[in-house]
Write a structure and sequence with these properties.
Elements: H1 14-24, E1 29-32, H2 39-56, E2 60-64, H3 71-79, E3 85-86, E4 98-102, E5 121-124, E6 138-141, H4 148-158, H5 165-178, H6 188-198, H7 203-210, H8 216-228, E7 230-232, E8 235-242, H9 248-256, E9 264-271, E10 274-281, H10 287-294, E11 300-304, E12 307-313, H11 319-333, E13 341-343
Parallel strand pairs: 1-2, 1-4, 2-3, 4-5, 5-6, 8-9
Antiparallel strand pairs: 7-8, 7-13, 9-10, 10-12, 11-12
Helix pairs in contact: 2-4, 2-5, 3-7, 5-6, 10-11
Length: 345
């Protein structure tokens, strides 16, 4: 069974997947992903549930915590992956024969799996970050692949299972969003699967996802983020303060990373009782390594390639002071390519 990071060229065969089936047990399998899931997580979980049902007749429940708030992601959930259920707590662990984590890992700090519960299956494309993985039966972490949905698609391919149009569209869009249409953190496997799914997807549903309507608060928050942005040489920082949804820092970071001559963009903001931060970099800067240096000790962060994110519980900390501390850390690390501050607008 996979116990190490594997090269993107490694494909699976039915005998190699037998330990995965054994790890799942007789069912039902509980499939979890990170809080506030993105399209890649939603697609990967649905693809895994499809594998177990069609290959071995094992039923699954797909559950997530947090919010799916971004307009496009809500459309993915509604039109492409409606099997996912939002839950606040999952306490009856004994009713499931196994737990699978997709696009996240135990101890990562970005999922709702209690520390006392060990999953049987972990499939992810982020940096291997926890000693807890030694207790997991099936571990498949491929940091050289741009989207977790691609890893699970290789399982479907090995079992001769063709995704229907709805699943193909979900996988396609998951790859598209995680790799920015194959322009960041991508591999030959991502490219191959992307174009295979392109030939099978439901174009009408894809159009509805990509053109999902945006509320007025989106534009208000976006303007606020631009107005608060400061440029330090080749680095840009924006602190949003309170945000209407937790994933907005990622959306703003994607936009600010496109500012000419920018090598790194850091965006921060808080929602409810947590501070969220998103980092985007150019290819030669490892965003995952950088954000782990930026995050304060009480927080959790991770990523790879050009994209990373993290969060910190506010507890009794003043949010402005917390944001300023992480910005200070970031600018200290990036001082060689930084400079005196100037406003963006």
């Amino acid at each position: 069974m996979p116990r190490r990071r594997k090269l993107a060229s490694v494909r699976m065969s039915p005998p190699q997947l037998e330990p995965l089936r054994q790890a799942a047990g007789a069912g039902p399998l509980l499939i979890l992903t990170h809080d506030n899931p993105d399209p890649d997580a939603l697609a990967a979980g649905k693809a895994l549930a499809t594998l177990f049902e069609r290959a071995w007749g094992i039923p699954s429940k797909l559950a997530y915590s947090g919010l799916v708030a971004r307009a496009e992601n809500k459309a993915v959930l509604r039109l492409l992956t409606p099997e996912w259920q939002q839950v606040e707590t999952l306490e009856d662990w004994s009713r499931y024969s196994a737990i699978a984590l997709v696009d996240t890992q135990p101890g990562g700090g970005n999922n709702s799996l209690p520390a006392v519960v060990t999953p049987q299956i972990v499939i992810d494309h982020h940096q291997w970050g926890s000693a807890e993985m030694d207790r997991v039966q099936w571990v498949d972490i491929r940091t050289d692949i741009g989207a977790t949905a691609c890893i699970v698609y290789l399982y479907l391919e090995a079992m001769g299972i063709e995704p229907d149009a709805q699943l193909a569209t979900a996988i396609f869009y998951g790859i598209q969003t995680d790799t920015r249409s194959l322009t960041r953190s991508t591999s030959p496997i991502d490219q191959e699967v992307y174009f295979k799914m392109l030939a099978r997807l439901d174009r009408e549903r894809l159009v509805k996802v990509e053109s999902a309507g945006l509320p007025r608060e989106y534009f208000r928050t976006f303007v606020k983020g631009l107005q608060s942005a400061q440029v330090f040489g080749q680095v840009v920082v924006s602190y949003l303060g309170e945000m209407p949804r937790p994933d907005f820092t990622a959306e703003l970071a994607d936009a600010l990373a496109r500012l000419e001559n920018t090598q790194a963009a850091l965006c921060l903001g808080y929602h409810d009782d947590k501070m969220y931060l998103s980092l985007r970099t150019v290819p030669h800067l490892d965003a995952g390594a950088l954000i782990r240096k930026i995050i304060v000790p009480t927080g959790r962060a991770g990523g790879h390639g050009m994209i990373a994110g993290g969060r910190v519980s506010l507890a009794s900390q003043p949010p402005d002071a917390l944001a300023n501390e992480m910005i200070r850390r970031f600018l200290e690390i990036m001082k060689d390519i930084g400079g005196p501050p100037e406003t963006l607008l």
